Q: What sequence folds into this?
């Protein structure tokens, strides 16, 4: 299954590895799903980790390394203006460019869309349930 994580999932996952968002990151590392992302998403994540959490360059480099090892970066070809928060539109663009099955987010405005193109937009809890179901049915 091909997925795109919203920045809020990454922030929670990297800052609280033992939480549910950390479980989502682990699901990628162990190969349960395939992660697509993009440079604008990575740039926003690094900015948030540096500005709001005070992460050092060394820690930010570890995040870049994680992306290099676990995500395929896609290039957006269009610019969407569906959501009021412009960085959220980069998530939608990434999903469309990757033809992802799912966007995983905690953002209420994005969740209200329910779908963009062929991509379903779901909560973190729904994603973890989906991954658990895939694991038990294998």
A:
């Amino acid at each position: 299954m091909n997925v795109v994580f919203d920045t809020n999932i990454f922030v929670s996952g990297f800052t609280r590895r033992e939480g549910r968002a950390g479980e989502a990151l682990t699901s990628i590392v162990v190969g349960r799903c395939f992660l697509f992302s993009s440079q604008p998403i990575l740039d926003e994540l690094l900015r948030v980790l540096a500005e709001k959490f005070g992460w050092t360059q060394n820690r930010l480099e570890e995040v870049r390394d994680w992306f290099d090892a676990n995500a395929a970066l896609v290039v957006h070809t269009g610019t969407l203006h569906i959501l009021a928060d412009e960085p959220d539109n980069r998530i939608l663009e990434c999903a469309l460019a990757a033809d992802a099955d799912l966007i995983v987010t905690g953002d209420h405005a994005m969740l209200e869309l329910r779908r963009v193109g062929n991509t379903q937009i779901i909560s973190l809890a729904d994603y973890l349930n989906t991954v658990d179901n895939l694991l038990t049915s294998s």
